[in-house]
Amino acid sequence: MSGDKPNGLPDEAQLSKMSRDELVKLGTEMDGVELVHYEERWPVKGTRAEKRAERLVALWFAIAALAGVGFLAAFLFWPWKYEAPHTENHWLYQLYTPVIGATLALSVLALGVGALLYTKKFIPEELAVQQRHDGGSSPVDSATLVAELGDVGARSTLGRRSLIKRTAGLGAGVFGLGVLAVPLGGMVKNPHADSETKDSLWHTGWKSENGEKVYLRRHTGNFHDVELVRPEDLDAGGFETVFPFRESERGHEHELVQALKRADNPVMLIRLRPGQAVTKRAGQEDFNYGDLYAYSKICTHLGCPTSLYEQQTGLLLCPCHQSQFDVFHYGKPRFGPATRALPQLPITVDEDGYLIARSDFTEAVGPAFWERKS
Ligand code: FES
């Protein structure tokens, strides 16, 4: 805004009596703005062409609203859980990411196209040249600027286009809801609602639902291929990632695949070297089986797999942000951003010599969540 004012500026009383057009004219003169070209888009109001243009803009905003509703519905209700290839619902699972991506993209695109079309079809064509000045704004500058902004609003004709206003509000509103749904979506389902089933945040696939034995199984790359683990399978200093298996799942493709895919199932089975001293966690003194210790593979920082084991120092490294967990001290964090120990799975051997889980983890695995106290 201008710092050098021409003489004879109106005082506050005169300003309050001036019309908006007069204030706009005064403001543009004071700002050294010269209007070189000005042309209304629709000099004759209410023509059929104008109505058509209005409906076209409204159509894009309506598309934005519909796509936003589609995104919200897919985000909340689409069957997103993994389904194995060749199973009935595999195609639905495969469509989840494309559907939420396409609906969100269409919502953003339609909002943008609607706004662009409105500018092209309804904002007057104007070419102005303004000299630049230094300095702050005086009361006169402020009053004229407010008038100019009001004038822009009036000339855009938005005030009298209620169809466009409503559809634009609807499109932007639904899009806003969709954007909010992403961070808030996790709170829509109550993790306490089924806290005793293996599907709640408090449990994992290691939970035995009806007293059935849960074996430690290795992943051979073929989910039909069930290989159970025995203590002698691991050399001293070695480690292996294992998953839960129940006899009732044998031959059931869906269950077998789920056990390997479920995010909180992977467990690192570690065999310490002879003579390596271990400090056990209070209350978990019998969770190991001899030199064999089983820890959740899911980092307690942000849930990456902590898969690098250094057998001499007993440190497990998470490659994401370099947290280190000490296997000699019940998986306690030694370095990095993680603050909680890796949960330990209580294990033993059954009468046939196979390693089994004595129960589920006794605490939630992975990163903390609001309801978790530790
Ligand atoms: S997820 Fe493991 S350190 Fe961040």
TrEMBL record:
Main location: membrane
Record-linked Pfam families: QcrA_N, Rieske
Entry's transmembrane regions: 57-78, 98-118, 168-188
Domain Rieske: 264-356
Keyword line: 2Fe-2S, Cell membrane, Disulfide bond, Electron transport, Iron, Iron-sulfur, Membrane, Metal-binding, Oxidoreductase, Respiratory chain, Transmembrane, Transmembrane helix, Transport
Protein topology in the membrane: Multi-pass membrane protein
PROSITE patterns linked: RIESKE (PS51296)
Cofactors that this protein relies on: [2Fe-2S] cluster
Gene Ontology molecular function: any one: 2 iron, 2 sulfur cluster binding
Stored InterPro entries: QcrA_N, Rieske_2Fe-2S, Rieske_2Fe-2S_sf, Rieske_Fe-S_prot, Rieske_Fe-S_prot_C
Subcellular location: Cell membrane
GO cellular component assignments: plasma membrane
Annotated family: Belongs to the Rieske iron-sulfur protein family.
Function recorded in the entry: Iron-sulfur subunit of the cytochrome bc1 complex, an essential component of the respiratory electron transport chain required for ATP synthesis. The bc1 complex catalyzes the oxidation of menaquinol and the reduction of cytochrome c in the respiratory chain. The bc1 complex operates through a Q-cycle mechanism that couples electron transfer to generation of the proton gradient that drives ATP synthesis.
Name of the protein: Cytochrome bc1 complex Rieske iron-sulfur subunit
Gene source species: Actinosynnema mirum (strain ATCC 29888 / DSM 43827 / JCM 3225 / NBRC 14064 / NCIMB 13271 / NRRL B-12336 / IMRU 3971 / 101)
Organism lineage: Bacteria, Bacillati, Actinomycetota, Actinomycetes, Pseudonocardiales
